[in-house]
Amino acid sequence: MYELINEISRWAIPLTLLLVPLIAMLRGVSVFETFVEGAAEGFTTAIKTIPYLVAMLVAISIFRASGAMEVLVHVLSPILDPLGFPPEVLPHAVMRPLSGGAALGIATDLIATHGPDSFIGRLVSTMQGSTDTTFYVLTLYFGSVGITRYRYAIISGLAADLTSLVASVFIVNQLFR
Amino acid sequence: MVNYVWLGMIVFGILVAGANGQVEVVTRAALEGADKAVKTSLNLIAIITFWLGIMKLAEAAGLVRALARLVRPVTRFLFPGVPPNHPAMGAIIMNLSANILGLGNAATPMGLIAMQELQKLNRGDPRTATSAMCTFLALNTSCITLIPTTIIGIRVMYGSTDPTAIVGTTIFATACGMTVAVIVDRMLRIFYGRQG
């Protein structure tokens, strides 16, 4: 099963790159000009996201470097300990919505320390694969079109992250404890 | 909401740093954050420029429209405010497909196109997110993942005897997350009132 999925993901992009221009050409599209036109839009989009990302990453960076992260972890751990949630993994859970790179760093460190096939190693692997850098995605996507009022997007994004987190702890406890 | 979260992280961070007697780290952290943001955006230029070129071709060839027609029953339920033939629909579908396959760096540019198309449908204040945008982002961040490629790579690196043991648990966890995302999104959509 995994082999098949792996093969699909290996071919997905090369096939797209082969078929899309080919079909476009057969449909009478001037392929080179159309590509350049789309690419020009891409350039402006990327530039437009800079101020939004600066705002968000500055706040996240201060929050982390100041030790505020540790305070939050400390406050949360008495609630989570009884749920089969090892305190070692808590920094990862708190960091995940804020910074993909930092969360991956914590995950790698835990896997290196406890071993990939340990309970903690499997739990943090599942968490890393199943939750997302919600704040980064929201900032980037909304920033690219100039949206500053997010309405309820943060609430539903974090609700989904929290659910994936709880589900990870549950299923890994069931299967690998 | 984002205003409070943002301000909260800065204020709380500076207070904690001050209490720890190392308030000077704040200055460095702020500038490092800014530096990382600009570098991320610049790195994105290459990949977004490339994928938006390909997407424009797919759109001109009518491929995006065909794909959108295929999954119309699902999208009609999830995005009642978006016309089924609108280019936004195609971009949303391509973004979610890339997420499912774990092709993270192909997903982002398509997500940005989806946002631009959704913004064209924004009949209210252009600075305020529409319901369709909130639904899209909820799905995007919670999307089912079939192959968590990066973490499998790290498990291999550290000598796991069964690196893909976590594929099943990941699918389970993301399926739960996505279900809740759809439910919460639908509830909040009613609570916040219909805006696009």
TrEMBL record, chain A:
UniProt keywords, alphabetically: Membrane, Transmembrane, Transmembrane helix
Classification via InterPro entries: Gate_dom, SpmB
Chain ranges of the Nucleoside transporter/FeoB GTPase Gate domain: 47-147
Signal peptide (residue range): none
Membrane-spanning parts: 12-32, 52-73, 152-176
GO cellular component: a single term: plasma membrane
Domain of life from the UniProt record: Bacteria
A Pfam family that the UniProt record links to this protein: Gate
PANTHER family xrefs: INNER MEMBRANE PROTEIN YJIG (PTHR35793)
Name of the protein in its database record: Nucleoside recognition domain protein
Organism of this sequence: Desulfofundulus kuznetsovii (strain DSM 6115 / VKM B-1805 / 17)
Lineage: Bacteria, Bacillati, Bacillota, Clostridia, Eubacteriales
TrEMBL record, chain B:
Regions that span the bilayer: 6-23, 44-68, 88-115, 136-158, 164-184
Domain Nucleoside transporter/FeoB GTPase Gate: 42-154
Pfam family, one: Gate
Keywords, ordered alphabetically: Membrane, Transmembrane, Transmembrane helix
Record InterPro entries: Gate_dom (IPR011642)
Keyword Protease carried by entry: no
Stated name of the protein: Nucleoside recognition domain protein
Species per Swiss-Prot/TrEMBL record: Desulfofundulus kuznetsovii (strain DSM 6115 / VKM B-1805 / 17)
Taxonomic path: Bacteria, Bacillati, Bacillota, Clostridia, Eubacteriales
